[in-house]
Design goal:
The chain is an all-alpha fold. The chain has three helices and no strands. The N and C termini lie far apart (83 Å).
Length: 109
């Protein structure tokens, strides 16, 4: 004997139906509203986390964009943080050797 409409049969509903008899329409509505509120609360929590992650990713993107000029220079270090500001940088070494007439750069084929 089926106590609930098809699709609503689950352990808690069936147990309650056996104890008190078939559900009234208002009881089903109340149970469904409680479940919807629970889903909404979970969804709100997920949305807050998503907004937090989006903000954190935005900060990372900004930090990477600020570092781009130093990365593109190929120096490997910010000019202010190099031990010797007058040192020849790896990105400049190849140009100096080519201008000096050296056709092969050590370590390159």
């Amino acid at each position: 004997m089926r106590l609930l409409p098809r699709g609503l049969a689950c352990g808690a509903f069936e147990a309650r139906a056996r104890q008190k008899g078939p559900f009234m329409a208002s009881e089903i509505e109340t149970l469904l509203l409680e479940q919807l509120k629970s889903f909404k609360a979970g969804q709100d929590q997920i949305e807050r986390k998503l907004e937090e992650l989006a903000a954190r990713i935005g900060k990372l993107e900004t930090a990477i964009a600020d570092a781009q000029p130093h990365i593109h220079a190929g120096d490997g270090a910010h000019p202010d943080r190099r031990p010797d500001p007058e040192a020849i940088l790896p990105s400049e070494a190849e140009d100096i050797l080519i201008r000096a007439g050296v056709n092969s750069v050590p370590g390159r084929r």
